[in-house]
Structures are given as C-alpha cells and as structure tokens.
C-alpha cells in the first residue's frame, strides 16, 4: 500500500490571481486607467500577440459562476487583488461606488462558499493618474496608497480577514527601473532604490493603518523568493550569491519582517552614492509596523556566478554589476516554458524563514507551471496536464518535509485558477487549473483541477 502525505488540519488549499489579470471590463463601471492600459495604448506591439489588459477572463461579470468552479476544484481559499484604479479612478479622492458594490459581493460570495478570501492591495497596477506624477518615484504616492489601503480595510474588513499589502514588489523595481522590461522602462539605479524604498515604506504605512483598526484580521506581504545558489564554493561565487540573495530576497523580507533594511544592500547603495532622501519618522514607521504573516511565491531559483571582471567601473550600478546568472548544466527544465524546476527550493525557503525570520507564519501564495500551446495536450475535450500534477506533487513533498521539520506553513495556493492574461506575455503561457477559451470565454476544468479537488478533499495525496 502506498503512503499518503497528509497536511496539517485546516491547511489552506487554493489558487491566486490578480485584478488586472482576471477581471476584464477594463474600461467600464467607472474604472480609471492604470499603467497597463496606458502602456498598451502607447505600444501594443510590446505585448504578446498584441493582446492587452482589455481582453482577460471577465471575472468581473462571471465571478459567481467562477466561484462555483473554485469549489469544483477544491478551493477553501483564494487570493486576488483589488484594482486601485477601479476603486479610486484618479488614484485618490472620489471613490467609485460600483467598485465597492462589486468587490463586496465578490468577497461575500467567496465566504458564502466557505472560501477564505486573501486580498492583495497592489499587484503591479499603478493608477495612470498617479504614474503621471511619477508613481512610486514620488513620496506623495505613498500617502495616496495609504489612503487607498485604509479605505479598503474600512470598506471590506468585515468580510476580508487576510490582507496583503503588495505582490512581488522587487519585480517593479527590477523590471521597471533596472532591466527596461516593464513600464516605465527606465534604467536608473537611483530611481530603482527610491522606488524600492517608497514601496517598503508604503507597505509599512498600510500595516500601520490596519493595526489602528484593531481587528481580528491579519496583514502580510507577498514576496517572490528565489534562493540564490552559487556556482561553486569559491569565495567570489559565494560573495556574488550573497549579494544576489540580498537584492532578490532580503530587500523586502528584511524591512517587512524585521523592520530594517538589509545591511549589505545599504552598504552597496552607499558605496554607489545612491541613498534616497528619507526622514527618521518614515524609518520609524518601517521599524514599528512589521507584517503578521508572509506570502511566498516560488517558481524557480537563481544560479549565480561571480562576474569575471567589472569591465566598466563607471557603468551604472545594477545588482548584476556584482553577479551573473549561471546557466548550470543538467538543471531540470520546464520544457514548455523554459524555467528551471527545482522542487527542493521550496524546502530551502522554508528553512531560511524558520531560521532567519523567526519562523513567521507563511503560506505559498503562488507556484505554477506555465505551458505554451497547451491545446496539444487536449484529449476528448479535456487538457490532460499530468506534467502539472507531477510538478505540484514534487513541490508538495518538499513543502511537507519542511512542515515536518517545524516550518510554520499554513497553505498552498497555486497560480492560477483560470488561465489568465499575464502582462507582456499575455496568453503565451497557460497556468490554470481551468482552461479558458479566449474567444468564447468557455471554461473547462483540466485534469489538474480534478486532481486538486482530490488533494483538498483528502487533505493530502498518495505518493
Ligand atoms: C508571477 C506574477 O510572478 O508570474 C504573475 O505574480 C504572473 O502576475 C506569473 O502572471 C506568470 O508569469 P508569466 O510571465 O510566465 O506569464
């Protein structure tokens, strides 16, 4: 007889999406524009197949039916975000009452179906009106975000008990201000530092507002953690991995959980003369307002090697000034997306949080396997995604081992419920437990969706 891997009682099983990626009705019912629509209108060719945020899963219209699908695929929890620009079309000031009615009913419907809503305030979707005044580059936007966060807690705090301030804040620093990959497409190390600082501060300001309300809820942050493994144990590679770890993971872990910035990063930022303007009062807010729990998004690790040499010492400072990505021979790859698969990474993260961050309560808030042209796996009308089931099982085994060794992990939410639009990649990579036909909007549960239901119902799976 085979063994069953059982998870702790009341373990959260579910999935995650974000407002911009799932709602549809991009323009409608009073929603203001955010940076995605603004950018798409300017440069549609940047988006895969020129599909922008106007064409998504339409959960805004279909959330009631979609919540039935969540039930059918074993959800007792679900994470999504509020669209800041839907609630505050100008980013601050007047509230859009239609947005209030929509989110209230959405969250109440989840609850009625015994699905715990986890709600995130910011998932890469700055209101265009605020980007026009500099977005996260502008300290004033921290105040507008705080106003927005406070409104959300007051409007929905009776239904939503689990909040997140941000999703993957390092991504907007990296892709928007260092790598020229996402809007506003700048390469400016000083601005990158400033944006990172303002985001960490905004997160702490939201925590502060939340704590004032003295509710029975909890507030956390979602971070994409990618363990940085050195190519070798020679001194230069180890140092390079240490810097990569500080930049990629500790940059937000430290302020969110310890209330202070990573000493190594501060040292490098000072060395390159990139310290942002700050005042002591703001540092005090960060110090005193740490999160209650942590959401971890894990897709793949980073393999790091020391740079052979710094060829141009006058080049603008980038974290990659100090390290290079190492293409490790023989690593296991997702053949349908191109990312590394390294299941043990999820365990290494668990041990790191346990040992270095006081074993704070945490859950997996995203993990997923993207697949291109997934139709090729369709048999008799259903996508048979055994590769995805194996991917989840492989990671769950390591997650379970971490829990057995004392890691305080309370849930596993996969990316994503229904195939969704994904920023520049649009519909290139499909991740869902449920297939979306983009033309008809028809939803069909994949094999992994049925497997996930069994996982939830059995609170574990057979090895
Ligand atoms: C995650 C983001 O990091 O990656 C999601 O939080 C995103 O918003 C997901 O959709 C998948 O990205 P991609 O580029 O493979 O579609």
Automatic annotation (TrEMBL):
It comes from the Bacteria. Keywords: Glycosidase, Hydrolase. Pfam families: Glyco_hydro_1. One of its GO terms (biological process) is carbohydrate catabolic process. GO terms for molecular function: beta-glucosidase activity. The keyword Hydrolase applies. One of its GO terms (cellular component) is cytosol. Belongs to the glycosyl hydrolase 1 family. This is 6-phospho-beta-glucosidase. It comes from Alkalibacterium gilvum.
């Amino acid at each position: 007889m085979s063994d069953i891997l059982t998870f702790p009682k009341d373990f959260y099983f579910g999935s995650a999406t974000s407002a911009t990626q799932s709602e549809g009705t991009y323009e409608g019912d009073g929603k203001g524009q955010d940076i995605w629509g603004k950018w798409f209108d300017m440069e549609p060719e940047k988006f895969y197949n020129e599909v922008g945020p106007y064409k998504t899963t339409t959960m805004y219209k279909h959330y009631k039916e979609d919540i039935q699908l969540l039930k059918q695929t074993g959800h007792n929890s679900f994470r999504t975000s509020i669209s800041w620009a839907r609630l505050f079309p100008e980013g601050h000031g007047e509230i859009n009452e239609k947005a209030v009615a929509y989110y209230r009913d959405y969250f109440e419907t989840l609850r009625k179906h015994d699905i715990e809503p986890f709600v995130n305030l910011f998932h890469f979707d700055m209101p265009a009106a605020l980007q026009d005044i500099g977005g996260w580059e502008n300290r004033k936007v921290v105040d507008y975000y705080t106003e927005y966060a406070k409104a959300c807690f007051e409007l929905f705090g009776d239904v939503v008990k689990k909040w997140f301030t941000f999703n993957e804040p390092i991504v907007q620093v990296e892709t928007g201000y260092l790598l020229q990959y996402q809007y506003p497409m700048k390469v400016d190390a000083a601005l990158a530092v400033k944006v990172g600082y303002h985001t960490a501060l905004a997160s702490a300001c939201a925590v502060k507002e939340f704590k004032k309300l003295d509710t029975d809820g909890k507030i956390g942050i979602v971070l994409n953690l990618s363990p940085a493994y050195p190519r070798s144990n020679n001194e230069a590679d180890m140092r390079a991995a240490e810097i990569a770890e500080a930049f990629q993971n500790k940059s937000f872990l430290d302020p969110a959980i310890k209330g202070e910035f990573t000493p190594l990063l501060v040292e490098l930022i000072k060395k390159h003369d990139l310290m942002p303007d700050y005042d002591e009062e703001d540092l005090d807010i960060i110090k005193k307002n740490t999160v209650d729990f942590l959401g971890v998004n894990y897709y793949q690790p980073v393999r790091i090697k020391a740079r052979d040499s710094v060829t141009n010492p006058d080049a603008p400072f980038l974290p990659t000034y100090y390290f290079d990505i190492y293409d490790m021979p023989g690593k296991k790859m997702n053949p349908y997306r191109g990312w590394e698969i390294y299941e043990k990474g999820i365990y290494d993260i668990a041990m790191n949080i346990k040992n270095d961050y006081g074993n704070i309560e945490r859950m997996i808030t995203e993990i997923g396997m993207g697949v291109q042209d997934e139709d090729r796996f369709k048999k008799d009308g259903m996508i048979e995604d055994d590769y995805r089931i194996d991917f989840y099982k492989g990671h769950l085994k390591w997650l379970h081992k971490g829990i057995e060794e004392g890691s305080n992990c309370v849930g596993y939410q996969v990316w994503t419920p229904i195939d969704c639009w994904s920023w520049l990649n649009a519909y290139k990579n499909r991740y869902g437990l449920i297939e979306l036909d983009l033309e008809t909007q028809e939803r069909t549960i994949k094999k992994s969706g049925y497997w996930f239901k069994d996982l939830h119902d059995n609170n574990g799976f057979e090895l």
